[in-house]
Automatic annotation (TrEMBL):
Family designation: Belongs to the bacterial solute-binding protein SsuA/TauA family.
Predominant localisation class: periplasm
SUPFAM superfamilies linked to this entry: Periplasmic binding protein-like II
Keywords: Signal
Protein name: NitT/TauT family transport system substrate-binding protein
Signal peptide segment: 1-22
Phylogenetic lineage: Bacteria, Bacillati, Bacillota, Bacilli, Bacillales
UniProt cross-references to Gene3D superfamilies, sorted A to Z: Periplasmic binding protein-like II (3.40.190.10)
Compartments (UniProt record): Periplasm
Length: 331
């Protein structure tokens, strides 16, 4: 009887120790991710969460939406997040301020701009010259959407500060509602908002900034250099899960993808999500590979310089780490 009792106690103790060890392991593998906004543009990230690819790598990903590049970077620099999903231009801004612990881009998620030009009135044969003399509700000054917007306008011989009334002093999270309440003739919007507006008759998509601007590391995953050095294994697992998700998105239909990401967009119906996913897939917005190329990095800085927002040119090797992606791709 005593032997049985001791054996039982031993089993109970071993079980509790195993549970405790598992709990500690899960805590050590927790990754806090701050995304700049909630958009179908970031579909592979949501697929990695919903399909359990992060879980398969032993990661417990906690996702929060910061609603703005400045807020996202603040969360990262203040250790409120481990990894940020935000425009690569923010890492250049931080570097130019003399950061002792620079923010490093280690994986690309999108390779084009993700915004669309939405007109208040229906236009059957759109021409960029139609923006001249109009009121254009743009994105936040210094952010990637705004810089790409200005780059595309100039490409079509439109001076954004002389040929139209440019509004760019509205908070990122309030741009859509401002247009919905009557501000502006045209607006630059992310999805699914653009398609929702179109479906509700509040606006009409007339052009894609992504198709016009070319390849650029528009949104990438980044972390402080110190975090990557201390947690290289975790970052590698994070990248591996993302790569699985990117391949899954590339190989599956827009309808199946929409079903997977719908929990992240409860206010959008499945039909709208499918349309948006299809639009992004067709214009090649979702990166099939996570490696940020030097060519796209140079294009990013050219766009920033054109917009007058490049504080200084930064060498590709200083703020882009390709070693982790290369390691994952080889495996």
């Amino acid at each position: 009887m005593k032997t049985w009792f001791k054996t039982g106690i031993a089993v109970i103790i071993s079980t509790f120790m195993l549970i405790a060890m598992t709990a500690c392991s899960q805590k050590e593998s927790k990754v806090r991710v701050a995304e700049v906004t909630r958009s179908i543009f970031y579909t592979p990230q949501y697929v990695a969460i919903e399909k359990g690819f992060f879980k398969e790598e032993g990661l417990d990903v906690e996702l929060t939406t910061a609603w703005g590049g400045d807020k996202t970077m603040t969360a990262l620099l203040a250790d409120g997040a481990d990894i940020a999903l935000v425009g690569s231009e923010t890492s250049i801004y931080v570097y130019a301020q003399g950061a002792s612990d620079p923010v490093i881009n280690f994986a690309g998620l999108t390779r084009t701009d993700g915004t669309f030009l939405v007109s208040r009135e229906k236009i059957d044969n759109f021409n960029w010259d139609m923006l001249k003399g109009s009121t254009f509700l743009g994105q936040r000054k210094g952010g990637m959407p705004q810089m790409v917007g200005e780059f595309v306008l100039k490409k079509h011989n439109i001076d954004p500060h002389a040929d139209l009334e440019l509004i760019q002093n509205i908070e990122f999270a309030n741009i859509a509602s401002a247009f919905g309440s009557g501000t502006g003739d045209f607006v630059q919007l992310f999805e699914p908002t653009a398609s929702i507006f179109e479906k509700e008759g509040k606006g009409h998509i007339v052009a894609s900034f992504g198709e016009e601007s070319g390849e650029v590391p528009y949104t990438s995953f980044m972390a402080k250099e110190s975090y990557i050095k201390k947690n290289e294994e975790i970052v590698e697992k994070f990248v591996r899960a993302l790569y699985k998700a990117q391949q899954w998105v590339d190989e599956n239909s827009s309808k199946d993808i929409a079903k997977v990401v719908q929990p992240f967009f409860e206010d959008s119906d499945l039909e709208t999500l499918e349309v948006v996913v299809d639009r992004y897939k067709n214009q090649g917005s979702f990166a099939k590979e996570m490696k940020i190329s030097k060519e796209s990095w140079d294009n990013l800085q050219a766009i920033m310089e054109e917009a007058g927002e490049l504080p200084e040119k930064v060498d590709y090797e200083k703020l882009v780490n390709t070693q982790i992606v290369d390691k994952v791709m080889k495996k």
